Amino acid sequence: MTDRIHFEDLVPGDVREYGRYEVTREEIVAFAAEYDPQPMHLDENAGAASLLGGLGASGWHGCGILMKIVAEGFILNSSGMGAGGIDEVKWLRPIRPGDVLSARHTVLAARPSRTKPDRGFVDFRFELLNGKGEVVLEQRCGVMFGRRVPGEPA
Amino acid sequence: MTDRIHFEDLVPGDVREYGRYEVTREEIVAFAAEYDPQPMHLDENAGAASLLGGLGASGWHGCGILMKIVAEGFILNSSGMGAGGIDEVKWLRPIRPGDVLSARHTVLAARPSRTKPDRGFVDFRFELLNGKGEVVLEQRCGVMFGRRVPGEPA
Lengths: 154, 154
Hints:
The structure is a homodimer. By secondary structure, chain A is α+β, with helices and mostly antiparallel strands. Chain A has helices at about 25-35, 45-50, 60-75; strands spanning about 15-20, 80, 85, 90, 100-110, 120-130, 135-145. Chain A is elongated and about 60 Å long. Chain A starts with 14 loop residues before the first strand and ends in an 8-residue tail after the last strand. The interface of A and B includes residues 31, 37 and 50 of A. Strand 3 of chain A pairs antiparallel with strand 4 (about 90) of chain B, so a sheet runs across the interface.
């Protein structure tokens, strides 16, 4: 499976855009009922009276949609091994019913593991874009990837 | 509704524990299929071969469960107005089928808005605990709350 994207292929400065995900009102309300039952994610009037200015998706729902797009468009075709956490999430704009979302990632840094010669760490900025090309969510995190050719630890 | 929890009630150093959420295998797999279809969240064998050491919930699923517990045990009974993002998430231990989770929050800092006399910002550490009392997820963020008595901006 060396044709998959490996650590060596991820070079600081790389930018990629991909994916298409249409969000429905039903999905926004269903996610909120399950995981974030704040009124502005469940009801138009409550949304209009909130800082969202209308019904808008839970920020965590946006994180899940971004993960889904990134998994299908990138990670599942890579040697990715997972992430230990998230460095930052910014919820910049509301996600509305009918929005068509896509992802953009930028490689910020890459370094081989200091202890394991078969892997390395890559820092990303992931952005979730709406149909107008506006960034609705920005997220930074480090992901571990297998190396195509194990080498000397850094 | 001045009996709800307001900005004035949230004092640095305050710690609260609350909630009970039992996670099923079905829910772990359903969330992953929808939002994080990486094999270690979908299949026992893939989980065992991964850094999770067995089937484990998506980290984003853990964030959603923590949000749900915090919403029902705290935010929905407060003047909370929302958060603009997350300062950090650490996924410290796997979340397994059958785990019974609860939440703990610590108030780290609180400051009135500099521009709006009716609100203030509170920084929290939110932790998701398993049935052994181990922290499986740690998250820091700032949340905006209405003030019970509008006052001078700081």
